[in-house]
Amino acid sequence: MVETLHIEILTDWHDVVSLEEEWNELWSRSAVRTPFQTFEWQSCWYRAFCEPGAVRLIVVRDGECLRAVLPGMLCSRRLGVLSLNSFCYAGTGQT
């Protein structure tokens, strides 16, 4: 049987906040857990380091069940004379 996964990119912090309970449930089901994976930690990180409007959170669902969250943000990079916007992972090796 092939699973259908739904991928969504959240760009509004208010939408991210609505994931708090599901996010922490996902964390509790994880085989490897660190405090850096919790909603509370990521929320603090975003408020401290992410520019307003730069939130880019990739959410993966299997039906209604949250399966993965990849925290990221919109970053500007220079490539020679070009200025590019790209997705940057919002974490460290611990997260």
Q: What does the secondary structure layout of this molecule look like, with pairings?
A:
Layout: E1 5-10, H1 13-17, H2 20-29, H3 39-49, E2 55-62, E3 65-79, E4 82-89
Antiparallel strand pairs: 1-2, 2-3, 3-4
Estimated structural class? alpha+beta
What string, H for helix and E for strand, traces the elements in order?
Answer: EHHHEEE
Major sheet details:
4 strands, antiparallel
Oligomeric description of these chains: single chain
Number of helices: 3
The tally of strands reads 4
Q: What is shown here, in short?
A:
The chain is an alpha+beta fold.
What does this structure look like?
This protein is an alpha+beta fold and 95 residues long. Helix content is 27%, strand content 39%. The protein has 3 helices and 4 strands. The protein has a 4-stranded antiparallel sheet with strand order 1-2-3-4. Strand 2 and strand 3 form a beta hairpin. The longest helix is centred in the middle third of the chain and has 11 residues.
Notable traits:
95 residues; alpha+beta; globular; four-stranded antiparallel β-sheet
